[in-house]
Amino acid sequence: MNQWQDFTAAHGDVQATRDFICNADQLGLILINGADARDFLQNQLSHDIDFIDESRYQLSSYSTPKGRLVGIFRVIRITNGYLLVTTRAMVLPLLERLVRYVVQAQVTLADASDYFARMMLQSDMAEVLSHPLLPQSPGAVMQNDSVISLQLEPLGEQRRYLLMCLSADEAMELWKGFAKQLSTAGSGALRLSEIMAGIPSIHPQTSEEFVLQMANLGFLDGVSFKKGCYPGQEIVARMQYLGKLKRRMFLARLDTDQLPLPGDHLVAEGKTEVDGSGMIVDAQFDPQGVCHCLYIAQIAKAEAGNLRLLQQPQVLLQNLELPYSTNAAT
Q1: Domains and CATH numbers, the chain
Q2: What's residue 241's pLDDT?
Q3: How far is the C-alpha of 135 from the C-alpha of 228, rounded, in Å?
């Protein structure tokens, strides 16, 4: 896919928030196939794999036996198995963990990131949304012999899509067609779009830091509380039915010119050492240079506006409204 990478690199790294197309190669793909692929995933991931087919994808996650998140996925059913879409940097660490549980099952796991050219687009333009390769509802998947496309979680009136093409030539032709109506942006536009949509990601710096409810997966239909066992299920169930959620994910803006990184610590105002208050999930600048971030923190401190970046104590986190309800988990 070097041809595709060279093609998208030529379009620069402009930021955008509306009506754009951008490279999505920062997302990685794990292919899982074999006669036991369904059972294998059912025993490893947080959601019920039987809820999807080739026309619907699913948000799900993988945790350690202690309930700590290692990966968050969009799970796609394909003809010969499943594709897990996740953070590119987490593909190999996840494969190393998952392969331990294959044992004698008829399952094959592989990094499929280099098999597909990937692009993301966001728009509310009728001439774009009517394209025959774009699904017509959030969560829907369209597939043919060479292209898989997903309609992602919406962001206001803007619809968001992920397209994955087996052919670099076809991907470039699709890009050129969409670019007649849309601006071309850098890969940071995808990251900002996910942040503004309130969709969490796990990076190497935040692996094993959170329980899935803290990352709002209970509000995002990223877990089934009725399915059987999977790694960390007891901790997840205990928090759901016996405990009270004391931490969750928030969306905020920061007035800073120094971009926070995933895993950066948040502390209570006046504190100069890590105090367990919270952590950055992801952050990105918008076209105006304003920093937006997702962070997980103690709810009481976050709602009181009592949090600061440990490394930038002068910067105030200004909470914004997430585009989905956090009143009750489903």
Answers
A1: 2-24+116-196 (3.30.1360.120), 27-114 (3.30.70.1400), 212-320 (2.40.30.160)
A2: 83
A3: 31
Q: What is the pLDDT of residues 268-291, one digit of tens each?
A: 998 999 999 999 999 999 999 999
pTM for the full predicted model? 0.96
Q: What are the structure tokens assigned to 262, written together?
A: 């995933």
The torsion angles phi and psi of 173, rounded to 5 degrees, stand at -65, -40
Is there a contact between 317 and 213 (Cβ–Cβ < 8 Å)?
no
Chain mean pLDDT for the chain: 94
Q: At 241, give phi and psi (nearest 5°).
A: -105, -20
> Using one digit for the tens of pLDDT, what is the confidence trace for 295-311?
999 999 999 998 999 99
Burial of 300 (0-12, 13-18, 19+ CB in 10 A): exposed
Residue 303, token pair as written in the block: 């709602």
Helix ranges (H only) for 72-147 are 91-98, 126-129
For strands 291-298 and 278-285, give the pairing.
antiparallel
